[in-house]
Design brief:
The chain has one domain. It has four helices and no strands.
Length: 71
C-alpha cells in the first residue's frame, strides 16, 4: 500500500512540473503559487482555498481561473 501512495506522490510532482514548468516543491516551500509565482495565502480568500493550495500548489485565484469559476 505504501508503494502505491509513493507512486501517486511522484505522479503529482511530475504532473505539476509538466504543467507549470517549474519546481513545484520549491515554490510550495516558499509559499508561492505554482502558476502566478506570487505569495499564495494572501490570494486565498476562503478556508477551501487554503486547503486547495496545500493540495495543488495553486492559489485560490489561479485555481478559480483554471476551473472557470466566476468571481
Amino acid at each position: 500500500m505504501q508503494e502505491g501512495m509513493y507512486s501517486l506522490q511522484e505522479f503529482k510532482k511530475e504532473l505539476r512540473k509538466d504543467c507549470f514548468g517549474n519546481d513545484a516543491e520549491e515554490n510550495l516551500s516558499k509559499g508561492l503559487c505554482i502558476q502566478c509565482k506570487e505569495l499564495a495565502i494572501p490570494k486565498c480568500y476562503s478556508e477551501m482555498g487554503i486547503r486547495e493550495y496545500e493540495i495543488s500548489g495553486l492559489c485560490e485565484k489561479c485555481f478559480d481561473q483554471i476551473c472557470g469559476a466566476e468571481e
